[in-house]
Amino acid sequence: MGIKDRLSGNEATAMAMKSMNMDVMAAFPITPSTEIPEQFSQYVANGLTDTVFVPVESEHSAMSACIGSQAAGARSCTATSSNGLALMHEMLHIASAMRLPITMACITRAITGPINIHNDHSDAMSSRDCGWIQIHAEDVQEAYDNYIMSVRIAEHKKVLLPVMICQDGFITSHAVENVELLEEEDIRSFVGFYEPDYYLLNPELKVAMGPYDPPTYLMEHKRQQAEAMIDSLDVIKEIYDEFGKLTGRYYDLIETYKIEDAERIIILLGSSAGTAKIVVDELRSKGEKVGIIKIRSYRPFPGKLIREALKSPKVVAVLDKAEGLSSIGGPVYSDVCAALNGNAGFKIVNYIYGIGGRDVRTDDIHEVFADLQDDIDGKESKAKTAANYRYLALRE
Amino acid sequence: MNDLLEIRWHGRGGQGVKTAALLLADVLFYSGKYVQGFPEYGPERMGAPVTAYNRISNDKIRVHSNIYEPGYVAVVDHSLIRSANVTKGLKKDGAILINTKLDPEEAKSLLKDFEGKVFTIDAETISIDILGKYFPNMPMLAGIIKMTKMMDENVFLENIETSLSRKFASKPQLVEGNMQVIKRSLEEVKGI
Fold first, then answer.
1. CB–CB of B64 and A118 under 8 A?
2. Using CA atoms, how far apart are residues B85 and B111, in angstroms rounded to an integer?
3. What number of C-beta contacts closer than 8 Å exist between A and B?
4. Is the Cβ–Cβ distance between B108 and B192 less than 8 Å?
5. Which of B36, B63, B64 sits opposite A176 (nearest CB)?
6. Dihedral-angle region of residue A313 (phi above 0 means left; psi in -120 to 50 means alpha; beta otherwise)
7. CB contact under 8 A, B62 and A178
8. Residues whose CB is less than 8 angstroms from the CB of residue A319 and which lie 6 or more positions away in sequence, other chains included
9. Where are the domains of chain B?
10. Does B9 touch chain A (CB under 8 A)?
11. Number of domain units in chain A
12. Structural domain containing residue A321
């Protein structure tokens, strides 16, 4: 049933969009996501899809076009990175508030200042409060699978929220890896035909979308969005299970790796989770009790799952690939601390890592686990900077 | 993952280094291996140093970092021997392939502190003789197969023809010339 292939993350994403025969794609190219609209537009030109491809003049227009077409009743998608996502920012809020299940490939890259084309999560993390579901991939297979599942999650009647499907720029987007693809007919029957309850081109049921919302209503509408985000926790799991039955690849909102009796646990997301698993295997073979938790769904944030997974560690490190510039640590660290509600019973430290494409090596993950052992032993930490707010591989 | 094979490529922008690394991943994929092929991006301009990497294994490859201790190195542009530390981290029992007109002994004398095997290929002469233009990546790809012995040469020739036919689907006339380059390159790799 599965088709064995080797593709880059960008190629696999374009392939997923083609297989689903999206109704509309509106995009403006930006490195490292450019290959997605580039390849997709070839599929369109060669007649492999009947998608309407809209080559817009900016990312703000790309998201505006997606909002317009999705509101009209068309399944719409786009792809972007870095400053492209930043330029969409205004429209991201409007897409989610209008409850439009748009999907977007976010190929994560540092936001400019100073200019940098390489991977970190400063673009995705700057969009975390926009009301979009945000799913992160470890490798090409996950990037492909996540996109297909996300269309179903977005359009679920209990959700109706847009989804950002993230993969690490260059590290995943430009790396060719083995991937197992689905037959096109299986994908099309999995995602089904898009039939929204309300859409602008329906002459039988006329509706207004995105009108003025006065103080008497906006708060209630925000609460409805918040409830949809909370409800999406269960819906995501439900769709993942259905996908697992189809493919044999079962996912959850978090992935735990050898944490059962772990004293030292690293929490992280994205491609470095794979590198960290190698280190866990090495240390486990020496009898060291270490493990990792990989966050796949960053929004909604699976706080309850993380709380339950952290049974009795002695110390936990949360790794952030975005600075956050908050003075108290990165965004994932803040979320993990909030999820534990001050009742952790163990020490939680933060590491800022991999900023602007700084390569994340197995040696770096070893360093974190060694620091955590020092924390357990009560030794003074060799970690860079402050006690709980640390840096990995920072040059001084 | 004891069978993990790691290769680092050094070349310059415009020499097809990324293409060669992706084609190497391709031919090994056809042989049922797990593969990774990825470039390390810098400023994208002709002539700037470029690095690319391959990992090859019988098991799923989970590490996602650059390669620091390769088993093999391929130097696509011999001027990099002086400007880049091409043997950095290269395993003692590893090997290096250099595109140069020098013999392996002469090439080895240019490398600092490297005791492993040295292979050379004159990609320029082969490429210009057959294609009339200088594309060093296909001779180097053939040289890698010769140096690492990681697959049977006949299987390699079948697989690379499939890959090139797919890559040049809109320009099929390019496949034959490149295949000639590859076949001659397999014969002309020198090693010590």
1. no
2. 9
3. 61
4. yes
5. B36
6. beta
7. no
8. A266, A267, A268, A272, A332, A350, A351, A353, A368, A392
9. 5-191
10. no
11. 2
12. 254-391
Residue in chain A closest to B24 (alpha carbons) equals A176
For residues A268 and A325, state if they share a domain: yes
- C-alpha A334/C-alpha A350 separation (Å) is 9
Q: What is the pLDDT of residues A198-242, one digit of tens each?
A: 999 999 999 999 999 999 999 999 999 999 999 999 999 999 999
Across residues A136-164, what is the average pLDDT?
98
The chain A residues in contact with chain B (CB within 8 A) are: 6, 117-118, 138-139, 168, 170-172, 174-178, 271-272, 274-275, 277-278, 359-362
Q: Is the ipTM of this complex over 0.85?
A: yes
Give the count of alpha carbons within 13 A of A36, CB side only.
34
Q: Which CATH number fits domain B5-191: 3.30.1330.40, 1.10.580.10, 3.40.920.10, 1.10.150.20?
A: 3.40.920.10
Using CB atoms, pick whichever of A6, A170, A275 lies closest to residue B63. A275
Residue B58: count other Cβ atoms within 10 Å of its Cβ: 12
Q: What per-residue string of b and e applies to A13-26 under the rule 16 or more CB within 10 Å gives b?
A: bbbbbbbbbbbbbb
